Amino acid sequence: MTLKKAYFFIFITLLIDQISKVYVKTHFFIGESINVLGLKWFQIRFIENEGMAWGIEIPGDYGKLILTLFRICAVGAIAWWLQDSIKKGSSKFLIVAIILIFAGALGNIIDSVFYGVLFNDSYHQVATIFSDEPYGTWFHGEVVDMFYFPIYEFKNLPTWFPFADSEGNFQFFNAIFNVADFAISVGVGILLVFNKKAFGEEHLLAK
């Protein structure tokens, strides 16, 4: 794969990610949800988080800034990895995985860097873009998540059951994610499942 093709796939992934986020941000308020095609197990539910997996936050006044700067450095390293892999003619499995991880990480960075100054808040209202009263500052935006698949809820489980709440309930699958998160997960999945093909001997010439 050429670097030009890689940039094209990154651009398409970013475009889908940002269009879906801006649409949800400008049509939903925090916590609002709808069933897609009337299916209870497939919902669009709007939430925001600080940008780490499962909503984990770094404490302190500069926690969010540190997280965003770290992510930017990480994306720079992934970009170098992508260019180096293409130059060496590495496996397409590896290159596709890197493309997805890079595009996903960059998609969430865009939220963190820009959304705080582009939108007003979404609590009890639908946000507007280019607002005169933005909810945050540069590098302090929150990441938009929306895809929710509450496939099944187990009830009346023993309270000692892993992940069960205090009433013995456990919901599968309860994560809420976005296109960028999905791209990262697929990329990592490719590296895990096709490990030997991804990290096998490098091709002599780039395909």
Explain this structure to me?
The chain is an alpha+beta fold. It has one domain. It has helices at 3-25, 63-87, 92-118, 179-193, 195-198, and strands spanning 33-35, 43-49, 143-148, 152-154, 170-172, 176-177. The strands form two sheets. The chain has a four-stranded antiparallel sheet. A hairpin with a 7-residue loop joins strand 1 and strand 2 (43-49). Helix 1 (3-25) packs parallel to helix 3, helix 2 (63-87) packs antiparallel against helix 3 and helix 3 packs antiparallel against helix 4 (179-193). The longest helix has 27 residues, at 92-118. The model is unreliable at 203-207 (pLDDT under 50).
Give a brief description.
The strands form two sheets. The chain has a four-stranded antiparallel sheet. A two-stranded antiparallel ribbon has the order 4-5. The protein is an alpha+beta fold.
Please outline the helices and strands.
Layout: H1 3-25, E1 33-35, E2 43-49, H2 63-87, H3 92-118, E3 143-148, E4 152-154, E5 170-172, E6 176-177, H4 179-193, H5 195-198
Antiparallel strand pairs: 1-2, 2-3, 3-6, 4-5
Helix pairs in contact: 1-3, 2-3, 3-4
